[in-house]
Predict the 3D structure of the following.
Amino acid sequence: MAVYTQVDDAELIAFLSTYDIGDLLSCKGIAEGVENSNYFLHTSAGNFILTLYERRVAEADLPFFLGLMEHLATKGVTCPQPVRNRAGAALGRLAGRPAMIATFLDGYAVHHPEPAHCAALGDALARLHLAGAGFPLRRENALSVDAWRGLFAPAADRAAEVADDLRETVESELDLLENRWPRDLPRGVIHADLFPDNVFFLGDKISGLIDFYFACCDAFAYDLAICFNAWCFDAAHAYAPEKGVALLEAYARLRPLTPAEIDAFPLLARGAALRFLLTRYVDWLNVPEGALVRPKDPREYLAKLRFHRTVSDIGGYGLAL
Amino acid sequence: MAVYTQVDDAELIAFLSTYDIGDLLSCKGIAEGVENSNYFLHTSAGNFILTLYERRVAEADLPFFLGLMEHLATKGVTCPQPVRNRAGAALGRLAGRPAMIATFLDGYAVHHPEPAHCAALGDALARLHLAGAGFPLRRENALSVDAWRGLFAPAADRAAEVADDLRETVESELDLLENRWPRDLPRGVIHADLFPDNVFFLGDKISGLIDFYFACCDAFAYDLAICFNAWCFDAAHAYAPEKGVALLEAYARLRPLTPAEIDAFPLLARGAALRFLLTRYVDWLNVPEGALVRPKDPREYLAKLRFHRTVSDIGGYGLAL
């Protein structure tokens, strides 16, 4: 959850007066997103979401994120749409921060995904990857393999606070992944953070995707591996083959995996596990001052990483593509 | 802000199925209330607020709070109304906690109240006090003068962490207030926590009052003193006479103060300042585990208390009633 900034009512009313969405009726900080402050906004024109971008999001990246949400919508992917002000701008300034008003998306996160939810996700992820084609802006993945050693190094000394073998495991993974990371897989725009919190359902159907603030240009199969880790394990962090198979098969029905993607998948899953292990570990060590955030447990991703180290090919996940 | 409990989507859907308010469309934890977990709830029937009562609220008190909100509405005071389920109950159970769905109240808190806002508050507070007449349930004020010494004693040793003179100031106030606290002022149902966060405005007009979870039976003028402290000081914690006069005059227009209330007012203001100083001090020492709450600064109320110690009669606040 995140509400880092208090919005003054008078400032908010002045900000809203630059839009054509009626009068302020209500504005409440909500527990959504971890990089930004988010508010439920009710005006005489309806429900909206107001986002204030905090320092963790680079302002230079905002045109990529907002432009992507608009591009995806034109290709049939349901996601929040920036509301433009009377001057035509999607981005304004409020409480000293870049600010956006977006359409309100109905739907709710599924806390215990079943195989059917994983299949719906696979379908939505493939559609997202296909819909990204033609989006003209570029953003490199700032949290891919080349960044991982630099994330870990300053924090390595405290690794034993999380697990006895954390340091050794991370350093041996870094050696292996830096050496063998595939660089020529099919790539395009990926979400890079499509956890259950960021996928809204209404009943069994996905109603929309949110939180594009890690989106970037990278390998499609790496995005799939991120989802695989986030959706296809049980509450005890054990792999759930029926979920993994449902996700991968549904994805491949719309966007068949290439032989190179299939070969690389266990390695991508290890990398995806390491990436979230590292950022959770760093966040766990350094809860930002003033952030009302409960850090997520890095051990969850250590357990997933340990599992992937036992898998030699995609058959180890219970499927043959 | 407070969201102490995560609500599982499947549990929430089952809970909603006992109500006649349509299907779940969205549910987001919001930063409102500090004693409970609150969620913005959007269903096919509209917007609502879902509250889960955490351990800090005694379950035995809930019929008083919920009954009071219903009673006040029948007397023309706008406040959230509990939505009854198909069995006619205002209170259910969700995520192991007592849970209520209430109507959504438009309006927003005013962060920098002007004298006009204080006048509107005085009017609303008097109406609230008058509207409480005839409410049959009783709840003693668990945070009045008899409770204050017990609040401070276990925490007294750390007082110097907040201010050099905190311990001496509190102990001399306790001696004086326990000795001189007026016990026979006009009394009835009071809100007891009517801070700016709990008063919603639309433009210059109050649209409703929220958060009745400190409401109890006590002296009306003590409730007025709580508001006086919360609304009539500037950002540097200096008394703003034009606000204080606006509040007291507007209140007295609807419910004239008795001579005993006028005499007692400076003492009530000291007591009200001490009460919030003490609870903020204790909260500041003990942020509850798992609570994503930023503790409020006890020093604000120490400054207000110091000011009231310089005031000998109500004329010291700039008005003659």
User: Anything to note?
Assistant: Strands of chain B lie at 24-30, 36-43, 46-53, 92-94, 97-103, 187-190, 199-202, 205-209, 216-219. Chain B has two domains: 9-103, 115-317.
